[in-house]
Each structure stands twice: as C-alpha cells, then as structure tokens.
C-alpha cells in the first residue's frame, strides 16, 4: 500500500485507504489478516468502522487544533481555555 516505515508499518493511512480496508472487512475478509497486512491493530480497524458509522467520515479528531479560519470565539473559546488551564494544573 506504499509509504512503509519501520518494521513494515505504514506511517500514514489516508481516508481512501481506510475506506478500502473497511470495505474488505465488510466483504468478509478477516480483521486479523487486514490488520497484519497494513501493520495496525485489529482494534484500530474497529475504531475506524465505529467512527465512520457515528460521524459519516474518517477524518481524525485528534490532530491539531481548529484551522485558523475557524478560530474559537465566545463560549467555545472560554471552554477551550478553561480546559487548557485545567490540564496544565494537573501536570
């Protein structure tokens, strides 16, 4: 599938590749086989499947903050700042 890194693991799997893997999973291929082929855990495939079912897409929710054009304002900004302060205090 390309873009292979250390120990045969793929560094980044784009949304199209994830969708193809999930289609193969739904078609009946074993999850273990698919996971081993790409170098990910079986749990990751189930997470992608559940994420797709719940949100309708596979975009990551973990990377970075909002785009600059979507700067937080008002109550959302206050909540984000409060969360950051809380996390800093816990260190």
UniProtKB/TrEMBL annotation:
Comp. bias intervals (Basic residues): 76-91
Family matches, as Pfam families: HTH_28 (PF13518)
Insertion element IS150 protein InsJ-like helix-turn-helix domain segment(s): 17-65
Region annotation Disordered: where it falls in the sequence: 57-91
Name of the molecule in the record: Helix-turn-helix domain-containing protein
Organism in which the protein naturally occurs: Mesorhizobium intechi
């Amino acid at each position: 599938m390309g873009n292979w890194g250390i120990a045969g693991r793929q560094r980044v799997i784009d949304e199209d590749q994830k969708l193809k893997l999930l289609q193969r999973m739904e078609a009946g291929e074993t999850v273990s086989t698919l996971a081993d082929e790409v170098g990910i855990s079986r749990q990751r495939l189930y997470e992608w499947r559940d994420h797709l079912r719940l949100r309708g897409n596979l975009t990551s929710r973990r990377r970075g903050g909002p785009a600059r054009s979507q700067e937080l304002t008002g109550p959302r900004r206050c909540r984000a700042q409060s969360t950051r302060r809380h996390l800093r205090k816990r260190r």
